[in-house]
Write a structure and sequence with these properties.
The structure holds 2 protein chains of 2 kinds. Chain A is an alpha/beta fold. Chain A has 20 helices and 14 strands. Chain A folds into 2 domains: about 160 residues, 3-Layer(aba) Sandwich (D-Maltodextrin-Binding Protein, domain 2), CATH 3.40.190.10; about 210 residues, Periplasmic binding protein-like II (D-Maltodextrin-Binding Protein, domain 2, 3-Layer(aba) Sandwich). In chain A, strands 7, 8, 9, 10, 11, 13 and 14 form a 7-stranded mixed sheet that branches. Chain A has a 5-stranded mixed sheet with strand order 2-1-3-12-6. In chain A, helix 2 links the parallel strand 1 and strand 2. In chain A, helix 2 packs antiparallel against helix 15 and helix 11 packs across helix 20. The longest helix of chain A has 26 residues. Chain A is globular, with a radius of gyration of 23 Å. The N and C termini of chain A lie far apart (about 55 Å). In chain B, helix 3 runs parallel beside helix 7. By secondary structure, chain B is mainly α. Helix content of chain B is about 70%, strand content about 0%. Chain B starts with 12 loop residues before the first helix and ends in a 13-residue tail after the last helix. The longest helix of chain B is centred in the first third of the chain and has 31 residues. Chain B has a domain of about 190 residues: MetI-like fold (Orthogonal Bundle). In chain B, a hairpin with a 7-residue loop joins strand 1 and strand 2. The chains are: A alpha/beta, B mainly alpha. The interface between A and B is large, with 48 and 42 residues.
Chain lengths: ~425, ~300
């Protein structure tokens, strides 16, 4: 009796683990076979464009195929790191460049593409020059910039503004003045998917820039001691807490995730008046919001200046592009397919057109006519201007920093928005991971 | 196998039993012992999960043991364990006793109660997250103010929701254990009690509960040790938030290891988790007395 129970318990303990492990293993790409593998993010409308580019390439190259797999944004960030560490990386690694790419490059996990870009200068010349910054580590290029430029934009619901009789904010003080007006009408001033953490971070990115200028965060990147305790940084941190205290964000923001697009829904349903989000939001509002975008309900602007701040109001932050790297562990055959895909499959005319239809600006040069002819021409022109006229285009912090520092940053940002730590404590916690 | 073919049936318990244990042993060594040794070794290294592994002595341990996050995570883990035990045990005992009755409607209800156990934790978490959404959830949809609270956005409420959902999921399982336990109690005990004039309540406290002692220990061990490893449900429901209000030890380990790329400290936490789990299991065994395994009345 005793033994059979133990056997059962052993099985009960062992089986779920082995099933889980088998699950992990089977989703990892095998090294057998000549096909290259490619992982990227799901979520429409972007997913369809990515899949379309792969399908088109596969049709043209039946004997050198690419097998694609999709992941949710936040899940992918963990999954790809684990896969690379375990030597199970896909041939083509989709990413955001910056600090994460740096850790891959320093561990020798991704191919140095510098000489390939020298040989294929026509590819390099066809892309936004600004997109190569986050692909470069110590002077060498480790990733091919792709897809679209994504500055962070302040969106607002024009219909809600009309109903309340309010004007879009021209300064931080305007924002603070709008908050009680919307709250009085039972409308949340800002939508926010706070559980995703990077959503809160966008607020700090802008406040740091507008108040202290781009050098404020640059000091963190360069590892300057106690960079987070700069008086301007403390002012920015205090300002965001002021906004939280004034009920500037939707009730329950800490439990809303961006991956579910619930924050987006708040804006187009009129439950929230404004939202600070990436340029990709336009496509989501268009796809999910019914006639919200087509009827002219969606307004957009660059983040307004802060009174007395040092930053240039043209500055922006966000993703200069997305990035494709090649795993150094892939077979020669797979690497060849991947490079061929970079040269002849990425940002081809069809893909460029689809990005534009979705309301995004691809990082390909010479698309002005297509942009102007699009039904989203106004928004595209706006994004194009923000991206190209920005004096400084800062990279998203969690991508610019190393994963270790980024995790501490995101954790503390949540606590800052929860009002459970003060700006000084925030600065102290982050000073501890500078340069890590 | 040879015992089954031809030879006269001669009992050889000492040589047959170890063979029966072999499959379980292989699984246990492969999926528990070897990874455990690996984790223990990793806790003395510095590794970002991507590059080379560097031995670094006690650095990871020092980092973990001096981090205020550890006592907090331990405290949250302990609270989840204690509160969910305190909620689940009475509910399961009462439901188990109720379902042990022979009437048909009780059998039907038993099947209904069993449903949550058939759903995966991930599905349950996603469903509850959607239902409890303050803006698009049940409360907002039905316009019931009492339900449209910021369930997962306030530390106390989020903790309560976690305990509630955990209980909702596991009460059926423990009910099943208790139901089996109650049905093993000899009816003669109750008949004797009835003759002595004991009412239902008196019977419950004087016969049912004492007779269920070992069932309570079995069920509690499963609850307590199981709650140490709660991960999927909390990860999807709150991701440890808001802030670190529901950040249990297992979640802390995952976040350090896979999100912050600090495999060394994460491994140190894993070792702590194993030690705490073993200590608790041992403690509960002691509470049950050394002859717990030999009892005939403990039921399932």
């Amino acid at each position: 009796m005793a033994l059979s129970r133990r056997t059962l318990l052993g099985l009960a303990a062992g089986v779920p683990v082995s099933v889980a492990l088998a699950g992990c293993g089977s989703s990892g790409p095998g090294k057998s076979g000549g096909a290259a593998t490619y992982w990227y993010l799901n979520g429409q409308p972007q997913e369809g464009v990515r899949a379309g580019a792969v399908d088109a390439y596969n049709k043209a190259h039946p004997d050198g195929r690419i097998n694609d797999t999709t992941f949710q944004n936040d899940a992918y960030k963990t999954k790809i790191k684990t896969a690379i560490g375990a030597g199970q990386a896909p041939t083509i690694i989709w990413g955001w460049g910056g600090g994460t790419l740096r850790t891959y490059a320093q561990a020798g996990q991704v191919e140095d593409l510098t000489s390939w870009f020298d040989e294929h200068s026509e590819v390099k010349k066809s892309l936004f020059p600004s997109s190569f910054g986050a692909a470069t580590v110590d002077g060498k290029i480790y990733a091919m910039p792709c897809e679209t430029v994504q500055p962070i934009i302040l969106y607002y619901n024009k219909k809600v503004f009309d109903r309340v009789g309010a004007e879009p904010p021209k300064s931080w003080d305007d924002i603070m003045a709008l908050v009680p007006r919307f709250n009085a009408k039972g409308i949340a001033p800002f939508a926010l998917g706070g559980q995703s953490r990077w959503t809160n971070m966008m607020w700090l990115e802008f406040l740091f820039d507008r108040i202290g200028g781009p050098e404020l965060f640059q000091a963190v990147i360069e590892g300057e001691k106690n960079a987070w305790s700069h008086p301007d940084a403390l002012t920015a941190l205090a300002k965001v807490q002021d906004l939280v205290k004034a009920d500037g964000f939707i009730k329950g923001f800490s439990s809303i995730t961006a991956d579910s697009n619930a924050d987006q829904a708040l804006l187009y349903t009129g439950k929230a008046a404004m939202m600070l989000h990436g340029a990709w939001s336009y496509g989501i509002q268009q796809a999910d919001g019914g006639d919200f975008v087509s009827s002219g309900g969606l307004g957009y602007m660059n983040f307004p200046p802060v009174e007395g701040g040092k930053g240039d109001p043209s500055d922006t932050v966000g993703n200069p592009a997305q990035y494709l790297s090649i795993s150094s562990k892939a077979s020669a055959e797979q690497k060849k397919i991947a490079k061929d895909f970079f040269a002849t499959g990425v940002l081809q005319d069809q893909e460029v057109k689809k990005w534009i239809d979705n309301g995004s600006v691809p990082i390909k040069l010479g698309t002005e006519k297509l942009l102007a002819a699009s039904k989203s021409a106004d928004f595209l022109q706006f994004t194009y201007d923000v991206a190209s006229k920005a004096k400084v285009f800062g990279q998203s912090w969690d991508q610019a920093l190393s994963p270790t520092a980024a995790e501490t940053l995101l954790d503390n940002i949540v606590k800052l928005f929860q009002l459970s730590i003060s700006p000084k404590q925030f600065a102290a916690n982050l000073n501890a991971v500078i340069g890590k | 196998m040879s015992a089954l073919t031809g030879r006269p049936p001669r009992r050889e318990p000492r040589s047959v039993l170890p063979w029966l244990a072999a499959p379980a042993l292989v699984v246990f060594v492969g999926f528990a012992v070897i990874p455990l040794i690996g984790v223990f070794a990793l806790s003395f290294t510095t590794w970002d999960g991507i590059g080379a592994i560097h031995p670094s002595g006690l650095t990871s341990w020092r980092a973990v043991l001096t981090d205020p996050g550890l006592p907090h995570a331990l405290w949250v883990t302990f609270l989840v364990m204690a509160v969910s035990w305190a909620v689940q045990t009475p509910l399961s005992v009462l439901l188990g006793v109720f379902l042990a009755g022979r009437q048909r409607y009780r059998a039907v209800l038993g099947v209904v109660y069993f449903v949550p156990l058939m759903l995966s934790s991930a599905a349950i978490a996603i469903a509850y997250k959607a239902l409890l959404d303050p803006n698009f959830g049940l409360g907002a949809g039905l316009k019931i103010d009492a339900l449209s609270k910021d369930w997962l956005g306030r530390p106390g409420l989020a903790f309560a929701v976690v305990v509630f959902v955990v209980s909702w999921q596991f009460v059926p399982f423990h009910t099943l254990i208790y139901q089996g336990g109650v049905q093993q109690i000899p009816a003669s005990l109750y008949e004797a009690a009835q003759i002595d004039g004991a009412g239902r309540v008196r019977q419950f406290f004087s016969i049912t509960l004492p007779q269920l002692k070992y069932t309570v220990i079995t069920s509690s061990t499963l609850m307590v040790v199981g709650s140490l490893t709660f991960f999927d449900l909390i990860f999807i429901l709150t991701e440890g938030g808001p802030g670190d209000a529901t950040r249990v030890l297992a979640l802390d380990m995952y976040k350090r290891g896979f999100q912050a790329s600090l495999m060394g400290p994460a491994s140190a936490i894993a070792v702590i988790l194993v030690l705490v789990g073993l200590a608790l299991a041992l403690l509960l065994r002691r509470l049950g007395g050394r002859d717990a395994g030999a009892s005939q009345l403990e039921g399932a």
